[in-house]
Amino acid sequence: MPVVYHNGMAQRYFVAVPIPENIVTLLNALCVRLTGHASPVRFHHISLVPPFMLRDGMREQQCIDTIRTISLKPFDVYIKKLGTFHQLGRMILVGHVEPNDVLARYAQHIQIALQPYIQIDSTPYTNAVIPPFDAHTTIDYDAKFLDAGLQLDQIEIEKIDWTINSFRMYKEIEKGLWKAV
Fold first, then answer.
1. Beta-bridge partners for 177
2. Average pLDDT of 93-105?
């Protein structure tokens, strides 16, 4: 899929699974427990298609209509492991969502279906390199506390589980704030 740089003018979108409010409450409590502060994440989700812009001449409705043709059979997911990755100089704390392989298949299917209409925005990624798919939900955007020797494999978390029954396309209405379309 083509990768482009966001020029600050084009409308951005992405496709994601929203996290239910009861799970968001658990993730926020986990963030407080680990960092001492509430999660700064404004919209907890599992990204299936990273931020993108529409190709020239394409319309938002074409993507919405395409996404509506993809059926999703509800399935159970869970988080029981935490992890981190570095992005643009920050250490991002995430909850790994399983089963990753099922989510990866949906992500791939959706990206292939949208390919004629979209261009991926690589600016949110270090060196403009989009990492391979890894189902996760962000808990903290700058987990500096982990540099102080805290080992994630020593952190016990209770299994957080729920059922996924939908995914949506979202439009960025201001930097970092997304609205379902």
1. 174
2. 95
Q: Reading across the β-sheet that carries 160-164, which strands appear in turn?
A: 136-140, 90-98, 75-87, 160-164
The pLDDT tens digits for 8-64 are 568 999 999 999 999 999 999 999 888 888 899 999 999 999 999 999 999 999 999
Cβ-contact 50, 130 below 8 angstroms: yes
Q: Tens digit of pLDDT for each residue in 103-125?
A: 999 999 999 999 999 999 988 87
Residues 97 and 89: their CA atoms lie apart, in Å, by 24
Provide the terminal-to-terminal Cα distance of the chain, rounded to the nearest Å.
Answer: 22
Bridge-partner residues for 112, per DSSP? none
Total Cβ atoms within 10 A of residue 162: 15
> By the 8 A CB rule, do 40 and 143 touch?
no
Find out whether the peptide bond into 50 is cis, omega within 30 degrees of 0: no
Please spell the DSSP secondary structure of 47-79, one letter per residue.
EEEEEEEEPTT--HHHHHHHHHTS----EEEEE
**Helix, strand, coil % in the chain, rounded to nearest 5:** 30, 35, 35
> What one-character DSSP code corresponds to residue 107?
H
